[in-house]
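User: quick one, sequence for these C-alpha coordinates?
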Protein backbone atom coordinates (compact mmCIF):
# COMPACT_ATOMS: atom_id res chain seq x y z
CA UNK A 1 0.00 0.00 0.00
CA UNK A 2 1.27 3.46 -0.89
CA UNK A 3 1.04 5.74 2.09
CA UNK A 4 2.71 8.98 1.19
CA UNK A 5 3.09 10.85 -2.01
CA UNK A 6 6.74 9.92 -2.48
CA UNK A 7 5.47 6.36 -3.02
CA UNK A 8 3.61 7.50 -6.14
CA UNK A 9 5.36 6.33 -9.29
CA UNK A 10 5.28 9.84 -10.77
CA UNK A 11 7.51 10.87 -7.86
CA UNK A 12 9.87 7.91 -8.11
CA UNK A 13 7.96 5.01 -6.48
CA UNK A 14 7.48 1.64 -8.16
CA UNK A 15 4.28 1.09 -10.17
CA UNK A 16 1.40 -0.50 -8.22
CA UNK A 17 0.67 -2.91 -11.06
CA UNK A 18 3.07 -4.90 -13.24
CA UNK A 19 0.57 -5.20 -16.06
CA UNK A 20 -1.63 -2.39 -17.34
CA UNK A 21 -5.22 -2.37 -16.01
CA UNK A 22 -7.59 -1.43 -18.80
CA UNK A 23 -10.93 0.30 -18.55
CA UNK A 24 -12.83 -2.38 -20.40
CA UNK A 25 -11.48 -5.86 -20.89
CA UNK A 26 -14.05 -8.01 -22.74
CA UNK A 27 -16.61 -9.94 -20.73
CA UNK A 28 -16.22 -13.54 -21.89
CA UNK A 29 -18.65 -16.40 -21.44
CA UNK A 30 -18.10 -20.14 -21.19
CA UNK A 31 -15.21 -21.28 -23.40
CA UNK A 32 -16.39 -24.87 -23.84
CA UNK A 33 -19.82 -23.76 -24.98
CA UNK A 34 -18.10 -21.41 -27.40
CA UNK A 35 -15.97 -24.18 -28.91
CA UNK A 36 -18.98 -26.48 -29.20
CA UNK A 37 -20.77 -23.84 -31.17
CA UNK A 38 -17.73 -23.16 -33.38
CA UNK A 39 -17.51 -26.87 -34.21
CA UNK A 40 -21.18 -26.93 -34.94
CA UNK A 41 -20.80 -23.97 -37.29
CA UNK A 42 -17.84 -25.60 -39.07
CA UNK A 43 -19.78 -28.86 -39.52
CA UNK A 44 -22.70 -26.93 -40.95
CA UNK A 45 -20.47 -24.73 -43.17
CA UNK A 46 -22.90 -21.84 -42.84
CA UNK A 47 -20.79 -18.79 -41.99
CA UNK A 48 -22.95 -15.79 -42.85
CA UNK A 49 -26.16 -14.66 -44.57
CA UNK A 50 -28.75 -14.94 -41.84
CA UNK A 51 -27.40 -18.22 -40.42
CA UNK A 52 -29.04 -20.16 -37.60
CA UNK A 53 -26.87 -18.54 -34.89
CA UNK A 54 -27.76 -15.05 -36.08
CA UNK A 55 -31.43 -16.00 -36.05
CA UNK A 56 -31.13 -17.46 -32.57
CA UNK A 57 -29.30 -14.41 -31.25
CA UNK A 58 -31.94 -12.09 -32.71
CA UNK A 59 -34.65 -14.19 -31.11
CA UNK A 60 -32.97 -14.20 -27.69
CA UNK A 61 -32.34 -10.48 -27.74
CA UNK A 62 -35.94 -9.68 -28.75
CA UNK A 63 -37.20 -11.78 -25.84
CA UNK A 64 -34.76 -10.27 -23.38
CA UNK A 65 -35.62 -6.71 -24.38
CA UNK A 66 -39.31 -7.29 -24.96
CA UNK A 67 -39.22 -5.84 -28.47
CA UNK A 68 -40.77 -7.24 -31.65
CA UNK A 69 -37.79 -7.03 -33.98
CA UNK A 70 -34.07 -7.39 -33.53
CA UNK A 71 -31.87 -7.13 -36.61
CA UNK A 72 -28.27 -8.14 -35.89
CA UNK A 73 -25.55 -6.12 -37.61
CA UNK A 74 -21.80 -6.22 -38.22
CA UNK A 75 -21.20 -3.37 -35.74
CA UNK A 76 -22.93 -0.54 -33.92
CA UNK A 77 -21.80 2.20 -36.30
CA UNK A 78 -23.20 0.54 -39.41
CA UNK A 79 -26.35 -0.21 -37.41
CA UNK A 80 -26.64 3.52 -36.63
CA UNK A 81 -26.08 4.44 -40.27
CA UNK A 82 -28.74 2.02 -41.44
CA UNK A 83 -31.19 3.08 -38.71
CA UNK A 84 -30.71 6.73 -39.71
CA UNK A 85 -31.20 5.92 -43.39
CA UNK A 86 -34.20 3.66 -42.82
CA UNK A 87 -35.91 6.46 -40.88
CA UNK A 88 -35.23 8.79 -43.82
CA UNK A 89 -33.51 11.36 -41.67
CA UNK A 90 -32.05 14.24 -43.64
CA UNK A 91 -31.15 17.93 -43.24
CA UNK A 92 -30.33 18.33 -39.55
CA UNK A 93 -30.50 15.91 -36.64
CA UNK A 94 -30.10 16.93 -33.00
CA UNK A 95 -27.82 14.85 -30.78
CA UNK A 96 -25.53 15.37 -27.79
CA UNK A 97 -21.88 16.26 -28.39
CA UNK A 98 -20.99 14.30 -25.25
CA UNK A 99 -20.95 10.84 -26.85
CA UNK A 100 -18.62 8.57 -28.77
CA UNK A 101 -17.85 10.19 -32.13
CA UNK A 102 -19.61 7.39 -34.07
CA UNK A 103 -23.02 8.88 -33.20
CA UNK A 104 -22.12 12.07 -35.09
CA UNK A 105 -20.16 10.32 -37.85
CA UNK A 106 -23.12 8.06 -38.68
CA UNK A 107 -25.02 11.23 -39.65
CA UNK A 108 -22.24 13.15 -41.37
CA UNK A 109 -21.28 10.02 -43.35
CA UNK A 110 -24.58 10.44 -45.19
CA UNK A 111 -24.29 14.23 -45.34
CA UNK A 112 -26.82 14.88 -42.63
CA UNK A 113 -25.80 17.76 -40.36
CA UNK A 114 -25.32 16.81 -36.71
CA UNK A 115 -26.59 19.62 -34.52
CA UNK A 116 -24.93 19.33 -31.14
CA UNK A 117 -27.07 19.87 -28.09
CA UNK A 118 -26.06 20.33 -24.46
CA UNK A 119 -26.50 17.75 -21.72
CA UNK A 120 -28.00 17.70 -18.28
CA UNK A 121 -24.96 17.78 -15.97
CA UNK A 122 -26.69 15.46 -13.49
CA UNK A 123 -27.42 12.65 -15.95
CA UNK A 124 -24.88 13.35 -18.74
CA UNK A 125 -27.65 12.68 -21.29
CA UNK A 126 -29.15 15.14 -23.79
CA UNK A 127 -31.02 17.96 -22.02
CA UNK A 128 -34.61 18.14 -23.35
CA UNK A 129 -34.79 21.78 -22.26
CA UNK A 130 -32.00 22.63 -24.74
CA UNK A 131 -33.43 20.75 -27.71
CA UNK A 132 -36.22 23.11 -28.68
CA UNK A 133 -33.90 26.04 -29.34
CA UNK A 134 -31.90 23.86 -31.77
CA UNK A 135 -34.92 22.93 -33.91
CA UNK A 136 -35.07 24.56 -37.37
CA UNK A 137 -37.26 23.89 -40.45
CA UNK A 138 -34.51 21.49 -41.60
CA UNK A 139 -34.61 19.33 -38.45
CA UNK A 140 -35.88 15.79 -39.07
CA UNK A 141 -34.92 13.88 -35.96
CA UNK A 142 -33.37 13.54 -32.52
CA UNK A 143 -30.82 10.95 -31.44
CA UNK A 144 -30.65 10.40 -27.69
CA UNK A 145 -27.70 8.50 -26.25
CA UNK A 146 -28.21 6.40 -23.10
CA UNK A 147 -24.74 7.26 -21.91
CA UNK A 148 -23.11 4.89 -19.37
CA UNK A 149 -26.31 2.83 -19.57
CA UNK A 150 -28.32 5.56 -17.85
CA UNK A 151 -31.46 6.21 -19.84
CA UNK A 152 -32.22 9.54 -21.47
CA UNK A 153 -35.24 11.47 -20.24
CA UNK A 154 -37.30 9.42 -22.68
CA UNK A 155 -40.73 10.82 -21.75
CA UNK A 156 -39.57 14.38 -22.41
CA UNK A 157 -37.88 13.42 -25.68
CA UNK A 158 -41.00 11.59 -26.91
CA UNK A 159 -43.06 14.68 -26.19
CA UNK A 160 -40.72 16.97 -28.13
CA UNK A 161 -40.53 14.52 -31.04
CA UNK A 162 -44.34 14.28 -31.15
CA UNK A 163 -44.90 18.01 -30.95
CA UNK A 164 -42.45 18.79 -33.75
CA UNK A 165 -43.07 15.68 -35.87
CA UNK A 166 -39.50 14.48 -35.53
CA UNK A 167 -38.18 10.94 -35.66
CA UNK A 168 -36.69 9.68 -32.40
CA UNK A 169 -33.74 7.31 -32.44
CA UNK A 170 -31.68 6.10 -29.50
CA UNK A 171 -28.02 5.18 -29.53
CA UNK A 172 -28.21 2.46 -26.89
CA UNK A 173 -24.59 1.32 -27.36
CA UNK A 174 -24.13 1.46 -23.56
CA UNK A 175 -27.65 0.45 -22.66
CA UNK A 176 -27.79 -3.30 -23.16
CA UNK A 177 -29.40 -4.90 -20.10
CA UNK A 178 -30.57 -1.58 -18.62
CA UNK A 179 -34.13 -0.41 -18.01
CA UNK A 180 -36.21 2.79 -17.93
CA UNK A 181 -39.28 2.87 -15.70
CA UNK A 182 -39.05 -0.91 -15.50
CA UNK A 183 -39.00 -1.44 -19.29
CA UNK A 184 -35.80 -2.56 -21.00
CA UNK A 185 -33.94 -0.03 -23.15
CA UNK A 186 -34.32 -1.05 -26.78
CA UNK A 187 -38.05 -0.62 -27.18
CA UNK A 188 -38.31 3.18 -27.14
CA UNK A 189 -38.57 5.76 -29.91
CA UNK A 190 -38.79 4.69 -33.56
CA UNK A 191 -35.81 2.39 -33.08
CA UNK A 192 -32.78 1.86 -30.85
CA UNK A 193 -29.26 0.76 -31.72
CA UNK A 194 -26.93 -1.49 -29.69
CA UNK A 195 -23.20 -2.01 -30.08
CA UNK A 196 -21.64 -5.38 -29.24
CA UNK A 197 -18.06 -4.17 -29.44
CA UNK A 198 -15.64 -5.85 -26.97
CA UNK A 199 -15.46 -2.69 -24.81
CA UNK A 200 -19.22 -2.80 -24.31
CA UNK A 201 -21.00 -4.74 -21.57
CA UNK A 202 -22.10 -7.45 -23.98
CA UNK A 203 -19.96 -8.33 -27.00
CA UNK A 204 -20.04 -10.49 -30.11
CA UNK A 205 -16.36 -9.74 -31.02
CA UNK A 206 -17.75 -6.97 -33.21
CA UNK A 207 -21.43 -6.50 -33.73
CA UNK A 208 -24.52 -4.49 -33.13
CA UNK A 209 -28.27 -4.54 -33.63
CA UNK A 210 -31.24 -2.38 -34.44
CA UNK A 211 -34.30 -3.08 -32.31
CA UNK A 212 -37.77 -1.75 -33.03
CA UNK A 213 -41.48 -2.48 -32.64
CA UNK A 214 -42.22 -1.07 -36.10
CA UNK A 215 -42.92 -3.95 -38.55
CA UNK A 216 -42.49 -1.91 -41.73
CA UNK A 217 -39.28 -0.32 -40.50
CA UNK A 218 -37.85 -3.72 -39.52
CA UNK A 219 -38.61 -5.13 -42.98
CA UNK A 220 -36.88 -2.18 -44.61
CA UNK A 221 -33.83 -2.53 -42.36
CA UNK A 222 -33.56 -6.23 -43.22
CA UNK A 223 -33.43 -5.31 -46.91
CA UNK A 224 -30.94 -2.50 -46.37
CA UNK A 225 -28.45 -4.58 -44.42
CA UNK A 226 -28.39 -7.19 -47.21
CA UNK A 227 -27.86 -5.11 -50.39
CA UNK A 228 -31.63 -4.77 -50.85
CA UNK A 229 -32.06 -8.45 -51.77
CA UNK A 230 -35.59 -9.66 -51.26
CA UNK A 231 -34.86 -13.14 -52.64
CA UNK A 232 -32.48 -14.74 -55.13
CA UNK A 233 -31.53 -12.27 -57.88
CA UNK A 234 -34.20 -9.81 -56.80
CA UNK A 235 -32.94 -6.46 -55.54
CA UNK A 236 -35.74 -4.08 -54.68
CA UNK A 237 -33.97 -1.39 -52.69
CA UNK A 238 -30.62 0.34 -52.22
CA UNK A 239 -28.65 -1.46 -49.55
CA UNK A 240 -25.27 -2.15 -48.08
CA UNK A 241 -23.57 -5.00 -46.25
CA UNK A 242 -24.49 -4.72 -42.59
CA UNK A 243 -24.81 -8.42 -41.86
CA UNK A 244 -23.60 -10.09 -38.72
CA UNK A 245 -21.65 -13.32 -39.34
CA UNK A 246 -22.13 -16.65 -37.56
CA UNK A 247 -18.86 -16.45 -35.63
CA UNK A 248 -19.97 -13.19 -34.02
CA UNK A 249 -23.46 -14.51 -33.39
CA UNK A 250 -22.24 -17.62 -31.58
CA UNK A 251 -19.87 -15.50 -29.53
CA UNK A 252 -22.84 -13.31 -28.65
CA UNK A 253 -25.06 -16.26 -27.76
CA UNK A 254 -22.37 -17.67 -25.49
CA UNK A 255 -21.74 -14.35 -23.75
CA UNK A 256 -25.47 -13.78 -23.37
CA UNK A 257 -25.68 -16.91 -21.22
CA UNK A 258 -23.26 -15.34 -18.71
CA UNK A 259 -24.89 -11.94 -18.60
CA UNK A 260 -26.07 -12.30 -14.99
CA UNK A 261 -22.50 -13.14 -13.91
CA UNK A 262 -21.07 -10.11 -15.71
CA UNK A 263 -23.60 -7.85 -14.03
CA UNK A 264 -22.82 -9.36 -10.64
CA UNK A 265 -19.08 -8.72 -11.11
CA UNK A 266 -19.64 -5.17 -12.35
CA UNK A 267 -21.99 -4.47 -9.46
CA UNK A 268 -19.46 -5.77 -6.89
CA UNK A 269 -16.78 -3.62 -8.51
CA UNK A 270 -19.06 -0.61 -8.37
CA UNK A 271 -19.70 -1.25 -4.66
CA UNK A 272 -15.94 -1.61 -4.06
CA UNK A 273 -15.32 1.75 -5.71
CA UNK A 274 -18.13 3.27 -3.65
CA UNK A 275 -16.48 2.06 -0.45
CA UNK A 276 -12.98 2.99 -1.60
CA UNK A 277 -13.88 6.54 -2.58
CA UNK A 278 -16.43 7.16 0.14
CA UNK A 279 -16.46 10.77 1.42
CA UNK A 280 -13.42 11.75 -0.61
CA UNK A 281 -14.03 15.47 -1.11
CA UNK A 282 -14.07 16.70 -4.71
CA UNK A 283 -14.58 13.25 -6.24
CA UNK A 284 -17.99 11.92 -7.15
CA UNK A 285 -18.69 8.45 -8.46
CA UNK A 286 -21.40 7.85 -11.04
CA UNK A 287 -24.81 7.26 -9.54
CA UNK A 288 -26.99 4.44 -10.86
CA UNK A 289 -30.71 4.22 -10.11
CA UNK A 290 -31.01 1.09 -7.98
CA UNK A 291 -34.69 0.74 -8.91
CA UNK A 292 -33.76 0.07 -12.53
CA UNK A 293 -31.92 -2.78 -14.21
CA UNK A 294 -28.37 -1.72 -14.96
CA UNK A 295 -25.19 -3.28 -16.35
CA UNK A 296 -22.82 -1.21 -14.17
CA UNK A 297 -20.28 -1.26 -16.99
CA UNK A 298 -18.90 2.23 -16.38
CA UNK A 299 -17.04 3.44 -13.32
CA UNK A 300 -17.17 7.11 -14.08
CA UNK A 301 -15.73 9.74 -11.79
CA UNK A 302 -16.15 13.49 -11.77
CA UNK A 303 -13.44 15.64 -10.33
CA UNK A 304 -14.02 19.06 -8.90
CA UNK A 305 -10.64 20.68 -9.33
CA UNK A 306 -11.59 23.61 -7.10
CA UNK A 307 -11.67 21.12 -4.21
CA UNK A 308 -8.99 18.59 -5.20
CA UNK A 309 -6.43 21.03 -6.66
CA UNK A 310 -5.02 18.22 -8.82
CA UNK A 311 -6.95 18.31 -12.04
CA UNK A 312 -8.37 15.46 -14.07
CA UNK A 313 -5.44 15.28 -16.51
CA UNK A 314 -2.92 15.20 -13.69
CA UNK A 315 -4.84 12.39 -12.02
CA UNK A 316 -4.83 10.48 -15.31
CA UNK A 317 -1.02 10.90 -15.47
CA UNK A 318 -0.60 9.75 -11.87
CA UNK A 319 -2.74 6.65 -12.46
CA UNK A 320 -1.10 5.82 -15.77
CA UNK A 321 2.30 5.83 -14.13
CA UNK A 322 0.90 3.16 -11.78
CA UNK A 323 -0.27 1.16 -14.81
CA UNK A 324 -3.90 2.09 -14.17
CA UNK A 325 -5.14 3.15 -17.59
CA UNK A 326 -7.97 5.48 -16.64
CA UNK A 327 -9.59 7.07 -19.70
CA UNK A 328 -11.00 10.52 -20.39
CA UNK A 329 -14.28 9.36 -21.90
CA UNK A 330 -15.58 11.31 -23.90
CA UNK A 331 -12.98 13.99 -24.25
CA UNK A 332 -12.97 16.55 -25.87
CA UNK A 333 -16.59 16.19 -27.12
CA UNK A 334 -17.60 15.56 -30.75
CA UNK A 335 -17.86 19.28 -31.51
CA UNK A 336 -14.13 19.59 -30.88
CA UNK A 337 -13.23 16.78 -33.26
CA UNK A 338 -12.89 16.94 -37.03
CA UNK A 339 -14.68 17.62 -39.23
CA UNK A 340 -17.11 19.20 -36.76
CA UNK A 341 -14.72 21.67 -35.18
CA UNK A 342 -13.95 23.12 -38.62
CA UNK A 343 -17.59 23.12 -39.70
CA UNK A 344 -18.91 24.61 -36.46
CA UNK A 345 -16.05 26.43 -34.73
CA UNK A 346 -18.43 28.16 -32.33
CA UNK A 347 -20.53 25.14 -31.37
CA UNK A 348 -19.09 25.25 -27.86
CA UNK A 349 -21.00 28.48 -27.13
CA UNK A 350 -24.21 26.46 -27.03
CA UNK A 351 -22.67 23.66 -24.98
CA UNK A 352 -21.56 25.10 -21.63
CA UNK A 353 -22.35 21.96 -19.60
CA UNK A 354 -20.60 19.70 -22.11
CA UNK A 355 -17.53 21.94 -22.13
CA UNK A 356 -17.41 21.85 -18.33
CA UNK A 357 -17.99 18.11 -18.03
CA UNK A 358 -15.41 16.92 -20.58
CA UNK A 359 -12.70 18.41 -18.38
CA UNK A 360 -13.97 16.70 -15.24
CA UNK A 361 -14.71 13.07 -16.10
CA UNK A 362 -12.60 9.97 -16.14
CA UNK A 363 -13.36 6.31 -16.44
CA UNK A 364 -11.79 3.69 -14.14
CA UNK A 365 -10.96 0.02 -14.82
CA UNK A 366 -13.69 -2.51 -14.11
CA UNK A 367 -15.17 -5.68 -15.62
CA UNK A 368 -14.18 -9.28 -15.01
CA UNK A 369 -10.45 -8.43 -15.21
CA UNK A 370 -10.40 -6.47 -11.92
CA UNK A 371 -11.55 -7.34 -8.41
CA UNK A 372 -11.70 -5.89 -4.88
CA UNK A 373 -7.91 -5.99 -4.31
CA UNK A 374 -7.07 -4.03 -7.44
CA UNK A 375 -9.88 -1.59 -6.77
CA UNK A 376 -8.78 -0.98 -3.23
CA UNK A 377 -5.28 -0.09 -4.51
CA UNK A 378 -6.70 2.17 -7.22
CA UNK A 379 -8.82 4.00 -4.66
CA UNK A 380 -5.91 4.34 -2.26
CA UNK A 381 -3.78 6.01 -4.95
CA UNK A 382 -6.65 8.30 -5.90
CA UNK A 383 -7.09 9.25 -2.24
CA UNK A 384 -3.41 9.98 -1.86
CA UNK A 385 -3.38 12.20 -4.95
CA UNK A 386 -6.50 14.07 -3.90
CA UNK A 387 -5.86 14.40 -0.17
CA UNK A 388 -2.43 15.88 -0.80
CA UNK A 389 -3.81 17.73 -3.81
CA UNK A 390 -2.08 21.10 -3.43
CA UNK A 391 1.35 19.55 -2.91
CA UNK A 392 0.89 16.96 -5.67
CA UNK A 393 -0.18 19.68 -8.05
CA UNK A 394 2.86 21.80 -7.23
CA UNK A 395 5.29 18.92 -7.70
CA UNK A 396 3.60 17.81 -10.89
CA UNK A 397 3.65 21.12 -12.73
CA UNK A 398 6.07 20.61 -15.56
CA UNK A 399 5.70 16.83 -15.40
CA UNK A 400 5.37 15.46 -18.94
CA UNK A 401 2.23 17.42 -19.67
CA UNK A 402 2.04 15.98 -23.16
CA UNK A 403 2.43 12.36 -22.19
CA UNK A 404 -1.30 11.62 -21.93
CA UNK A 405 -2.27 13.36 -25.13
CA UNK A 406 0.44 11.53 -27.04
CA UNK A 407 -0.50 8.05 -25.86
CA UNK A 408 -4.22 8.75 -26.44
CA UNK A 409 -3.50 9.23 -30.13
CA UNK A 410 -1.72 5.91 -30.54
CA UNK A 411 -3.86 3.88 -28.25
CA UNK A 412 -7.09 4.45 -30.15
CA UNK A 413 -10.27 3.12 -28.58
CA UNK A 414 -9.70 -0.59 -28.81
CA UNK A 415 -8.28 -2.31 -25.77
C1 LIG B 1 -19.24 2.04 -29.13
C2 LIG B 1 -20.19 3.09 -29.48
C3 LIG B 1 -20.70 3.22 -30.78
C4 LIG B 1 -20.16 2.44 -31.94
O1 LIG B 1 -20.32 1.08 -31.87
P1 LIG B 1 -19.32 0.10 -32.69
O2 LIG B 1 -19.94 -1.24 -32.49
O3 LIG B 1 -17.97 0.24 -32.06
O4 LIG B 1 -19.33 0.53 -34.12
C5 LIG B 1 -21.68 4.18 -31.01
N1 LIG B 1 -22.12 4.96 -30.03
C6 LIG B 1 -21.65 4.91 -28.77
C7 LIG B 1 -22.20 5.80 -27.72
C8 LIG B 1 -20.64 3.97 -28.46
O5 LIG B 1 -20.14 3.94 -27.22
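Assistant:
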Amino acid sequence: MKENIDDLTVFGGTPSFQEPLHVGRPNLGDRERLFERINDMLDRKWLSNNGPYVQELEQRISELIGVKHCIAMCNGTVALEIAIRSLELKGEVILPSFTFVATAHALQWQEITPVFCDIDPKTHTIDPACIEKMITPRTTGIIGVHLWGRPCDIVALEKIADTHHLKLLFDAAHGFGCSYKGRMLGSFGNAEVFSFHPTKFFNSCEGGAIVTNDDALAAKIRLMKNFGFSGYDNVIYIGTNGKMNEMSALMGLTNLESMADFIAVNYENYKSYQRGLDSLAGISLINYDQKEKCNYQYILLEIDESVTHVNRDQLVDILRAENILARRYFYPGCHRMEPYRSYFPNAGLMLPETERLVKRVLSFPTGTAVGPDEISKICQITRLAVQYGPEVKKRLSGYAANETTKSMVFEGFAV
